[in-house]
Amino acid sequence: MIGDAANRQLVNIDHVAEVDAPLSELEAKVVTLPQTWISGGFTSDSAHFSAPLQFGAKNWVLRIYAKDQKIACVKIHTDDSSNELERSLRMIHSKVTFYMVLILTGLIVFSSSENNQAAKPQVDPSQVILRAIETPDGPQLEIRIGHLVCKTDQLTFQRKEGREFSVQPVGNKVHVISDRQRIAAQQMEYSLPWLTGAR
């Protein structure tokens, strides 16, 4: 009886937890929900609630993880399957990275095809242009390769076994930082074959 009531309370929290919603917004909603039979709370980047352990059954657990203060993953499960959550987060990250690379490759190939070039002005698909732009979310790094345009808050790259470079927008300039040097300019251009180590 108590276990069922506790599980319903966990499900109620699960129903108001929305992916991409601010974690603070969820915390404000949870305060208004009944929590008589469950325990748990919030940290700066997660929330954890659990029902009491029942005889002959595993207790339910609700885990919520946030990235950049926005909910990234919500999972309700039995306590013995908690490692599945970490595995599923790693798998999601791997799949997202794989699909991003696949899409990027397809877009580069498509943007350099002859049919597409007839409709658009000639752009060098082997040239990578990095610029800092201002967005409502703050400064962003704009990456242009041919007709492909991507935006991110930071980029890290490494040529072959060389040193690692971090690229960040600071104000209206692009900063390329390594353990030995720091370069800043409004725009930076690199050859794609050079960046990938082909040359």
Descriptive overview:
This protein is α+β, with helices and mostly antiparallel strands. Helix content is 33%, strand content 37%. It has two domains: 80 residues, Beta-lactamase Inhibitory Protein, Chain:B, domain 1 (2-Layer Sandwich); 76 residues, no CATH class. It has five helices and twelve strands. The mean pLDDT is 77.
First CA to last CA: what distance? 69 Å
Residues in helix, %? 25-40%
CATH fold topology of the largest domain:
Beta-lactamase Inhibitory Protein, Chain:B, domain 1
Total of DSSP H or I helical runs spanning 4+ residues: 5
According to DSSP, the number of beta strands is: 12
Oligomer: single chain
The coarse overall form would be elongated
Spatial strand sequence of the major β-sheet: 1-2-3-4
How many domains comprise the coordinates?
2
So what's the CATH class of the largest domain? Alpha Beta
- Give the low-pLDDT segments: none
Rg (C-alpha, Å): 23 Å
* Main sheet record: 4 strands, antiparallel
Observed structural traits:
alpha+beta; Beta-lactamase Inhibitory Protein, Chain:B, domain 1; 2 domains; four-stranded antiparallel beta sheet; 5 helices; 12 strands; elongated
